[in-house]
Amino acid sequence: MNSRYVMAMSSVLAFVGLGAGLALSAPDRYTVKVPGGLAFSEFRGYEKWQVMNLSQNGKVVAVILGNPAMIKAELAGIPANGQPLPDGAAMAKIHWLPKQNTSAPGAPTVADKLVNVDFMLKDSKRFADSGGWGYGAFEYDADKSAFRPADEKSSPPQGHDAKCGFACHTIAKAHDYVFTEFPLR
Description:
- The chain has 185 residues and is an alpha+beta fold.
- Helices cover 18% and strands 29% of the residues.
- It has helices spanning 3-24, 68-75, 166-169, and strands at residues 50-57, 60-66, 90-100, 109-122, 133-141, 146-149.
């Protein structure tokens, strides 16, 4: 194995491990709900979902996780083949502020402070007016060790319902409103 692969995988494992540890420290996470939409509790166990991809957008780094239905569809070529994802497919995107791990070889960038967790759930009946997807963004308040639904004061600003991500995702309509690609492993 080359060192770049080992360092990349180390970063992925650090992201997932940190997310699981921080999520466990916030006992109220399963009580929060986006008004009129998704509840954090609908994604119970997301910490154990498979990694789909990583991203960096501005100041934050993220890991995108897929539930078993999402991973099965991705492995079958959906939505890249133009087919819609099945109801029940779900994704979680965990955002952190990054830091350099100066004690590791090469000082890789790793996750540090949890910023928020975003969710997408495919339910074509429940969310028929938003491409079949429900969205939920939950900000993490480190002072309270608690999550709250994202709002206009969040970065980026969020709406107050399960359609809060739809406007942004319309540009990915050809891929069933999903930006994340599932790269070769």
